[in-house]
Amino acid sequence: MPSYKVINDVTKVREEPLSIRGGAVGVYTQWLVSKEDGSKYAVRRQVVKPGGKAPLHRHAYAETFIVLRGGAGRMTVDNENIDVKPGMCIFVKPNTPHSIINVGNEDLELITIISYEDDMSINVLE
Which residues on adjacent β-strands are paired with residue 48? Predict the structure, then answer.
């Protein structure tokens, strides 16, 4: 395995629906960096379609959201509502309840970074 990885166009990486049991709608993930690359963290490009959402949930891993483009999004993090827009970075500590919804008319594009932990399960709270 080479000691580096180059993706010339992240929009061309295989896209898959976000799999949160019982909840994610209109959220798509592209895995850019993962354990399979020898990394201790994952980097993902995620697109939340208008009206799409990841329900309120928590997990043992930390998660960082970097909003690249799109209209209006709203996150709930630990009972606080945050209006998200391009240029923002939101860090969520492990086991903190959080959700995201696209309340705008255009795709919301994010880069998300997660730590790999022994327990990667997701606990849906709604």
Answer: 27, 108
Q: Strand 122-124 vs strand 73-77: parallel, antiparallel, or unpaired?
A: unpaired
Q: How many structural domains comprise the chain?
A: 1
83 lies in a domain? yes
Closest CA to 98 of 64, 69, 67, 71: 64
pTM for the predicted model, two decimal places = 0.94
How would residue 88 be classed by pLDDT, with cut points 50, 70 and 90? very high
CA distance 27 to 118: 25
Question: Which CATH number goes with the domain that contains 72?
Answer: 2.60.120.10
